Amino acid sequence: MSAADAHAGRRLGRAQRLRLWEHAVYAPIWRPLAAWIGLVLIVLTYIPLVWLVVMSFSDRPLSGIPHPLTLRWYDELFATSAWIEPMTDSLWLALAVGVCCVLISVPVGRAIPRLRRRGGVLLITLLPLFVPGLTMGAALFLFIRSYMHFKLGMWSVFVGHMVWALPFAFLLVIVLATRFDHRLLEAAEDLGASAWQRFWQIEFPIMRPGIVGAGLFGFILSFNELLRSIFLRGTETTMPIYTWAQASSHQSNVPIIFGLASLIFGVTLPIIGTFFWILFSRTDRGR
């Protein structure tokens, strides 16, 4: 066998393997299988949340039996004001983190894809995503309290939440910024558009899902953060710390926490869901 025949045989073998792989990947069975897997994941995500709301109306929620129904736990929840201050502090803190995530991630996320050597900068920016919350909380506590000798409080909790939420905001903005066609900005500049006009009229509508998502991610991650808050709170109490303390130390307060969690879920999920639906439906209509 000549070298040409051997080469042709290898090419034929690779072509056959490629056809077999394409046949396996695009087999008719994969589409219904993927649909069933997605359905199972949706059920596993939302059924426990719905069941939590149902059990918050049960007279014996810890038994897992949704009968008899009662408003007792909600009456006890609204009869006390101990949770109002942690809730208010968490909302203001989450709002501040969300706004700062947008203000920082947008200019930095737009600048990173334009760097000549952006790999190292991107690695350093996203590395906090992979640091465990316990490790980051302990490290920030030692640095702020033991080394800097600063008094812990809500400001230190804000720092910890920013360290946690900002890489997610960067990631959302960077994904859209790398896909953005900068020739549009160059054409607008040639036509006399100012820097603000180029951003607001061209870049912002395209990057709007990432910008809004960065703010919402910052808000949600801050509002639900527990590990870093425990180390950095000083004498302050956020909503996750309050619910964790009540659930872990007072067994009789667990049903009240069910009602509080259901109340938060019932208020935040429709608002965020509606906001995302409006945002992405406008994006789809703009295509």
Write up what this structure looks like.
By secondary structure, the chain is mostly helical. It folds into 2 domains: 3-49; 83-285, MetI-like fold. 77% of the residues lie in helices and 0% in strands. Helix 3 (72-79) packs across helix 12 (254-285), helix 4 (84-111) runs antiparallel to helix 9 (195-224) and helix 4 packs across helix 11. The longest helix has 32 residues, at 254-285. It is globular and about 65 Å long. The termini are far apart. The mean pLDDT is 81.
Write the layout of secondary structure elements.
Elements: H1 3-25, H2 30-55, H3 72-79, H4 84-111, H5 119-126, H6 133-147, H7 154-178, H8 183-190, H9 195-224, H10 227-232, H11 239-249, H12 254-285
Helix pairs in contact: 2-12, 3-12, 4-7, 4-9, 4-11, 7-9, 8-9, 9-12
Summarize the entry for a quick read.
By secondary structure, the chain is mainly α. The protein is built from 12 helices and no strands.
